[in-house]
Amino acid sequence: MRVCYLVQSHREPRQILRLVHTLKRLAPESAVLVAHDARGCALEPRDLGGAPDVHFLRLPGPIRRGYLSMLDPYLRGIERLRELEVEYDWLVYLSGQDYPTQPLARSEAMLAAADSDGFIRFWPALAADTPWGRRRQGLHRYGYRYRDAPAAAAPWLRLLRALNGVQSFIHVHLTYGPRVGTRRRRLPLDLYGGWQWTTLRRACAELVSETVARDPELVEYYRRTICPDESLVQTVLVSSGRFRLANDNLRYADNHGSRDGRPRVLGVGDLELITSGGYHFARKFDLSQDARVLDALDERLEG
Question: What percent of the chain has pLDDT over 90?
Fold first, then answer.
């Protein structure tokens, strides 16, 4: 049984390299692919240290939060692994601000013994209340066909946004840039939502990649939605009915109170919770705000 860790990164090279080094130190037989947004910061293949089975994929961007491009590192990463003929059984999808919270030997042993095909958080996207935190959030994200508006229009759209609550034909969305959506008459498929970060058997990951390649209507639908990275993978896998999916992505993140989807930066005060045994990884960490928590995690991971 072999695990591949796909790391999606765009900032803080020092932290990216620390994560890669930790993955290979704790799981030397694993493969690692860093899919890096070159517009975020400079990072070169030689920076990764030349460890065996550590691969690099440079993405020209733009990769934008709230847009379909947020899944480009994942989808292109799966294609790149196929091109390189990398052998793996499980694909663990991480951000550059993730870090292990238990020894990888323990988490990989759990995957080896698992009777599930994937560990992924999912729920009906159009439910009135979802873990996203706001009522009808799924409808506002996926029930409208959005177009970008000029940045200069943002002040006027803030005024028009008040109409969101009194009619349902047009929706103004400003969280990830000014966008205006018109209500869709019908939705093309059963929709599921969830968190972006997943742990999937290779067959699951490749089904997502193959579906995107052969279904342009699905791609075009999601291209005109908000946060397709929190729905496309769930919709493909759950709707397929082919896999046993555990509704748990084995990650810890604190999104409580977030209005833009960014989780709280974790620190040493979170150490006991995130190492309690229920999580394989946590996010997000920031070396510039609290490097001590990663030092403390390293001590526990080595122990």
Answer: 81
Q: What is the pLDDT of residues 93-103, one digit of tens each?
A: 999 999 999 99
Residue 40 class from Cβ within 10 Å (0-12 exposed, 13-18 middle, 19+ buried)? middle
Q: Name the pairing type of β-strands 31-37 and 3-9.
A: parallel
What global pTM score does this model have?
A: 0.95
Q: Is 13 exposed, middle or buried (0-12, 13-18, 19+ CB in 10 A)?
A: middle
CA dihedral 59, 282, 251, 253 (to 10 degrees): -90
Question: Do 219 and 68 touch, CB atoms closer than 8 A?
Answer: yes
CA 297 remoteness from chain centre = 22
With tokens 């002040």, the residue in question is 155
Q: Residue type at 38?
A: A
Find where tokens 């000014």 sit: 178
With tokens 């900032």, the residue in question is 11
Q: Report yes or no: 70 and 196 within 8 Å, Cβ to Cβ.
A: yes
Distance from the first to the final alpha carbon of the chain = 23
What is the rounded distance in angstroms from the CA atom of residue 248 to the CA atom of residue 278? Answer: 10
Q: 30: closest CA among 51, 5, 49?
A: 5
Cα–Cα distance, 54 to 52 (Å, whole number): 6
Spell out the domains of the chain, with CATH numbers in brackets: 3-124+191-302 (3.90.550.10), 144-183 (no CATH)
Alpha helices in the chain (DSSP H): 13-26, 72-83, 104-113, 137-142, 154-160, 202-214, 216-223, 232-240, 271-274, 292-302
Whole-angstrom distance, CA of residue 234 vs CA of residue 207: 12
- Burial class (CB within 10 angstroms; exposed 0-12, middle 13-18, buried 19+) of 272: exposed
Report d(CA 255, CA 260) in Å as an integer.
9
Tens-digit pLDDT profile for residues 195-204 = 999 999 999 9
